[in-house]
Amino acid sequence: MSDLPVFLGRLHPVLVHLPIGLLVAAGCFQAWVSWRRRKGAPSALDAAIGPLLWLAALGAVAAAAAGYLLATSGGYAGGVYDRHQWLGLGVAAFTLGAASARVHASHRPDRNARVTYAVLLISSLALMVGAAHAGATLTHGEGYLTEHAPSTLKALIAFLAPEPPVLDATVPPEQAVVFDALVEPILESRCVSCHGAERSESGLRLDDPQRIGAGGDHGAVVTPERPASSELWRRVSLPPSHPDVMPPRGRPSVTAAEGALLRWWIVEGAPFEKTLGEVEVAPDVRSIVEAILGPLPPGGPTLPPVSPDAPDPGALAAAEAAGFSVKPIADGVAFVLVQTTNAGDAIEDAEVAALAPLAPQIVWLDLGGTAVTDAGLESVGRLAHVVRLDLSRTAVSDAGLAHLADLAYLESLNLYGTAVSDAGLEHLELLSRLRWLYLWQTEATPAAIERLSALLPELEVVAGGSFGEEPTSP
Amino acid sequence: MSNHDDSGFCCDRRRFLSTGSLGLGAAALASLLDPRLLQGGEAKTAPANGRPVLAAPHTPPRVRRVIYLFQSGAPSQLDLFDHKPLLQTMNGEELPASVRMGQRLTGMTAYQKSFPLAGSQFEFARHGASGAWVSELLPHTAKIVDELCFVRSMHTEAINHDPAVTFVQTGSQQGGRPSIGAWLSYGLGSENENLPGFIVLLSRGRSGDQPLYSWLWGSGFLPSQHQGVPFRSGKDGVLYLSDPEGLDRSGRRRMLDTLRTMEEKQRERVGDPEIDARIAQYEMAFRMQTAVPEVTDLSDEPDSVIDMYGPEARVPGSFAANCLLARRLAERDVRFIQLYHQGWDQHGNLPKDIRIMARSVDQPTAALVRDLRRRGLLEDTLVIWGGEFGRTNYSQGKLTKDDYGRDHHPRCFTIWMAGGGVKKGFTYGETDDLGYNIVRDPVHVHDFQATLLHMLGIDHERLVFKHQGRRYRLTDVHGRVVPDLLA
Q1: Separation CA A260–CA A266 (nearest Å)
Q2: Which of B144, B151, B206, B152 is nearest to B373 (CA)?
Q3: How far apart are CA A366 and CA B375, in angstroms?
Q4: Minimum mean pLDDT range among A108-117, A223-232, B36-45
Q5: Distance separating alpha carbons of residues A16 and A139, to the nearest angstrom
C-alpha cells in the first residue's frame, strides 16, 4: 500500500542534514570574512555566503515540510516533539530571513541592515542547535548524547540539571519489584524513545504499566504467561534482518540477556507489582538477575545463612590424604560435601578429627559405613555448619549423640543400623531445625519417637514402617 | 608403517582452518594476557581424562543420584494412573473429531474405519493422604503415593518406540547423541572410583516386545568412557571382565601396565583423545573386577529385604532383582542407574498383558522406594518411573466386552518421580475428560530433561559439548525447568 505523504514524511531524516551543513558553513564563512574585513583584507569567500544561505533556507523549508508530513503520520506528541517542531520551523524562517537580510544589506550598506542580518544569522544557528538536539532526542531517546560522556562532564551536567535518584541499593534483591528493577529499564532504553510520551508509534506506549496493558493500535502486546503470543517479546526476539524486528533495523537491538528477562517476565504472568521473592526465578535468568541486583538467596537445598571463605587448600589436601573426598557443592560456593565412598572403613576417629580446619565449609557429611565411634562424634560436633549428617551403619551409640547438640543447622540425621536407643534421642531434643531422622534398625522405641516428634513438630522420623502396611524391618 | 602421522584426530579440518590462521597470534596474545595458559593450566572444554568437565555443579544440587525405571513399550496411562470416568461411560462410542482435531495417528490405526473409545476395565481408587488415583493393577505403588510426584501432562514429539525412547534418553529422535547418563558422567564424573558413573540394567516383563539398542546408553560424541555400562545377570556381571583361567590378578596388572606404556606412546604420536578413553576404560575394568562381583552378590542381603522386593527378586535379570541391585549401586554412589523394563506395548490383548506387566514391576518398584527411604537415600536420590509416550483412548482393533488394545499416543502420558528433589504426594498437569489432549500444565520431554538436570544442580543450557562446529546439549535448543515440581 503506498501512501505518498508518509513516504515523503520519512524523507525528513534524509533532507534535514544538508541544510544543517550549509547553515554551519555559511556561519563559519561569515565569521572568517568579518574577521578578515576588520583587518582590512576582504575575502573572496564573501561571495559564497549568499548562495549557501539560500540553499540552506530552501533545504530547511523542505525538511520542515517533510517533518510536518512525518508528524501527521502519527505517533508524535509531547514536549520534546513540540520543541523540535517549533525550533525547526524557526530555523527555516530565520534562515530565509537571514538570506533576505543579506541581500537587503548588500543593496543598502547601512549599519541597521548589517545588524539585522547578523542577528538573524546567529539566531538561526542557535535555533538549529536546539532543533537538532530535540530531533536527536526523539530518535535516540533521552540521555543518548551524554550516556558515555567522561565522568567529569557527566558530573557537570548533573550539577547543572540534577536528576531524580535511581534504584535504592540497600533493598535486598528479593524485595525488588520485578517490573521496576528488571523490565522497565529495558523498555526505557530500547523502546520508549519511539513508544513513549514524546512519540507513540502505532499508538503504543511502553512508559507506564497501564499503557503497556492497554496495548497499541493493533491490540495487546503482552499476553501473560505466553511469550510466543506476546507481540512485545515476539518482535524483539526476531532475527535482526526480519522486517518486523524491534527495535527496528539499524537501532541497537535487545541483548540476549534483556530478551531472556522480558520472556521470563511474561512467563511469570507479566506482573507489575510482584517482587522478586514472589515469582519463580527461572534458572536461565538467575545469573542475569544476579548481575543486576546482586546475589539472590540460593534455591534448592537448605544451607546455613553464613558466607565462609573458600576452603584452605592445605586443609583440603589433609582431608583428601585422610581418605575423604571433598567437593564444593556448587560452582562459586564455599560450602563442601565430604564423602567416604572410596574410603570405607579406612575412616576412623583420627581421620574425622582431620576435618576440623574445614568446619566453616562442611555442610554435607557422609560417614555412613565408616569406623567412626562416639569419640569421633566429638570432632563432628564441632563442624558447626553441618546440615546433613550420615552416621548410618557405624558404631556410634547414645553417648556419642550428646556431642551433636550444638549442630544448630542440622536438618537431616541418618542413624539407621546403629545401636542408638531411646536414651540417645534425648540428646536430639534441642536440634530445632531437624527435619529428617532415620532410625530403621535401631533400638529406638515408638514411644520415644513419638515424644521427640511432639517436641520437634517439623521432624519426620523414618523408622522403616512409617508408610504403607508392609512389615519393614526383620 | 602407520600413516597416522599427524594429530588429525583431535583437530578436524574446520577447526584447523578456523584456528590455524589466527592461532599463533592468538596464542601469543593469550599468553601475554595470562601466562598460565602456556604452563599447562586447566583447559575449560577438554578436561584431563577421567576428570569431570564441571568442577562442581552450577547450583547446589537437590539430588546426587538418579534411578530411572524406564518402562519400555509405553505403559497405558489410562489403565494405571490417569483416571477417566467419562471414558468408561462412553465406552464403545466413536472418538469425537472435536477431540482428535485431525492429529496424526500411527500407520497401525490411521486406516481404521472406527475409533471406539475404550474405557479402562480396571477399578481406580484414590490412595494415601494425597488422594492420588491409581488403578487396581498397582496395589503396592498405591501404598507409596504420598512419596510420589505424578506428572500427568507429559508429551513427546515421536510416535514410534525407537525414536521416542531415543528422544527421552538423548533429546533427539535419531540415535547417536549422548544419553542422559553419559551427559552426567561427562559433566559430574563418577563418585565411586571402582564403578562407572552410569550403569544400565535390562529386564523384560514378557517376551516378544520392542527391542532396545545400545545407543540408548551410548556416549555419542562425548569421550567413550562416559557410555553406560550394561550389567548382565548370570556369572559375569559385565562381559569379558573376569580373567581367563590361569591368569592371576598381578599378571593382569602387569599386562595392563605394559599396554598402558604402549598406548601412551601412541597417544603422543597420534593425539587421538579416544586413546585416553581406552586407557581409562581398561583401568576402570581392572578395578571393577573386584567391585562388580561384590555389588552383584546378594548373599549379604537378609531374606526379609529380598522378600520385600517380591519372589522374582531371587531371579537374576528380573526387574525385581534389578531394583534391588539398583539400590545397592545407589548405596555405592553410582550417579545414574538406568533400568529398562520391556513389554509394555499393548496394541491388543491389553487387559491380559498389562496385568502381567504391572505385576512384574509393582512390588519391586514400591519396595525400592521404601528401601531407599528407610536407609536415608531417598533424600538425595531421584527415582523416575515412566515410558516413552502414552496410549490412545480408543481401541486399536476390535473393542469387545473384555478385550481392547491401545495404539501409541504422544499427546499425553503419565510418569512419576520420587525423591529429595520433587514434591511429595503431588499431581501435576491434567488431560481432558477423555484423556486425549493435555488441558493444563504440559511438560515436554525437553522440559522434563531440563528439570532433571536442574535437580542435579546442572543448568541444562550450560552443559554443552562442541562437536562438528555446533554446541550440543541434552535439551537441544529447548527445555524449561518446571519449578512447580520442585520441593
Answers
A1: 10
A2: B144
A3: 13
A4: B36-45
A5: 13
For residues B372 and A464, is the Cβ–Cβ distance under 8 A?
Answer: no
* Model ipTM value: 0.86
> What number of H helices and E strands is found in chain B?
13, 17
Contacts of B261 (CB under 8 A, 6+ apart): none
What DSSP state is assigned to residue B217?
G
A313 touches chain B (CB under 8 A): no
Residue A441 has pLDDT above 90, yes or no: yes
Phi-psi category of residue B166: left, alpha or beta, with phi > 0 → left and psi -120 to 50 → alpha: alpha
Rounded to whole angstroms, the Cα distance separating A106 from A114 reads: 9
- Tell me which residue has cell 571382565: B241
Contact between A338 and A364 under an 8 Å Cβ cutoff? The reply is yes
Average pLDDT over residues A401-417: 94
β-strand pairing of B124-127 with B132-135: antiparallel
Cell digits for A338?
A: 565430604
The DSSP line for A158-188 is: HHHS-------TTS-GGGSBHIIIIIHHHHH
Which among A302, A329, A437 is the top mutation candidate for probing chain B, defined by the most B β-carbons within 10 Å of its own β-carbon?
A329
Residue B431 is given by DSSP the state: E
B161 CB near a chain A CB, below 8 Å?
A: no
H or E element in which residue B72 lies: strand B65-72
Average pLDDT score over residue span A320-336: 93
Residue of A462, A466, A469, A473 best to disrupt the B interface, most CBs of B under 10 A: A462
pLDDT at A108: 79
Cα–Cα distances in angstroms (integers) from residue A18 to residues A92, A129, A369, B387, in the given order: 13, 14, 85, 70
Q: For chain B, list residues with pLDDT below 50.
A: 1-8, 34-49
| Best CA proximity match to A448, nearest among A469, A458, A467, A463 | A463
pLDDT (tens digit, 9 = 90+) per residue, A367-400?
999 999 999 999 999 999 999 999 999 999 999 9
Distance from CA of A53 to the nearest CA of B (A): 54
Q: Extract the C-alpha cell encoding B149.
A: 510426584
Rounded distance, CA B95 to CA B112, Å?
Answer: 12
pLDDT mean across residues, chain A: 86
Classify strands B406-409 and B390-395 as parallel, antiparallel or unpaired. Answer: antiparallel
Residue A453 pLDDT class (50, 70, 90 cuts): very high
User: Which residues lie below 8 Å from residue B430, measured CB to CB, with a gap of 6+?
Assistant: B152, B153, B438, B439, B440, B441
Smallest Cα distance from B418 to chain A, Å: 14
Residue contact A341–B373, C-beta within 8 A? no
Q: What digits encode the pLDDT tens for the residues A11-36? A: 888 889 999 999 999 999 999 998 98
- Residues of chain A contacting residue B461, judged by C-beta atoms under 8 Å apart: 284
Distance, in Å, from the CA atom of B118 to the CA atom of B95, rounded to the nearest integer, reads 9
Closest residue by Cα to residue A309 from A263, A343, A237, A358: A358
Q: Which pLDDT score is estimated for B260?
A: 93
pTM of the model: 0.70
Residue A243 half-sphere exposure, CB side, CA atoms within 13 Å? 0
